Amino acid sequence: MNKKRYAVVVDLRLCKKCGICSFICPKDVFSTYGDVINSTECSGCKQCEIYCPDFAVEVIKITEEE
């Protein structure tokens, strides 16, 4: 069975540290200013990616073999 995991990538050239991703994330993946602090908790909902006004966040699905 494959376990779903997600990588959360923030393009620091685009990010203006608005904190929307931190506010919207249900799993507390981000710090207050948009730094990724706990990507292992990401559920892949992509709310951070959808609501980022600068298109600086990308959620990438990673599948691991068990």
Can you put this structure into words, describing what you see?
There is one protein chain. The longest helix is centred in the middle third of the chain and has 5 residues, at 20-24. The protein has a two-stranded antiparallel ribbon. The protein contains 2 helices and 2 strands. Helix content is 15%, strand content 27%. The chain is α+β, with helices and mostly antiparallel strands and 66 residues long.
How would you sum up this structure in a few lines?
The protein has a single domain, classed as Alpha-Beta Plaits (2-Layer Sandwich).
What brief labels describe this structure?
66 residues, two-stranded antiparallel sheet, 2 strands
Estimate nothing, just give the exact number of structural domains.
Answer: 1
H/E topology pattern: EHHE
The CATH architecture would be 2-Layer Sandwich
State the CATH class: Alpha Beta
Identify the strand order in the major beta sheet.
1-2
Tell me the strand percentage band: 25-35%
Structural class: alpha+beta
- CATH topology (fold) name: Alpha-Beta Plaits
Write down the overall mean pLDDT.
92
Strand tally, please?
Answer: 2
Percentage of residues in helical conformation: 10-25%
Low-confidence stretches: none
How far is it from the N-terminal to the C-terminal residue, by CA? Answer: 6 Å
Give the helix tally.
2
What is the global morphology?
globular
Biggest sheet: strands, sense, closure? 2 strands, antiparallel
Radius of gyration: 12 Å
Task: Set out the fold topology.
Layout: E1 2-10, H1 20-24, H2 47-51, E2 57-65
